[in-house]
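Lab notebook page, bench 4
Experiment: in silico fold of construct C2
Operator: M.H.
Input chain length: 137 residues
Purpose: comparison with the prior construct
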Amino acid sequence: MATDNKSSILVDELLPEFLDTEGPKFKAFMRAYYEWLETTNQITDRSKNLLKYGDIDTTDDEFIKYFQREVLSDFPENVLADKALLISRIKDLYRSKGSEQAYKMLFRILYDDEVEFYYPKMIFLEYLMVDGHRKNL
């Protein structure tokens, strides 16, 4: 059965034969119902694009909220980054959790701002190595 065929045409083949004699009105109703679904693009569009909807890179905007609920449940709703891009790249953030790169990425996502790191030990070492000579304390 090809997915490009109209479902309303297949109703007669899919319903049991006893409905020909005992339920012709039901069969006609089912055919009309599937024809209506085809005119409103409900059944054909949804069924043909199921795999597309499951991929964040190709899904429609209406399905991004479901991905967000699944993958970004700990993130605020009003992130400044593109949500689809964030969802597809969130694994990188989780893998590098705790690193300087992860913090930089997190601040870009949440605040659209770069962050600088301050390491007191580096300043202390610079203080000790004035003019290329080690200072004695």
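Observations: The CA atoms of residues 18 and 24 lie 9 Å apart. The chain has a mean pLDDT of 78.
Next step: discuss at group meeting.
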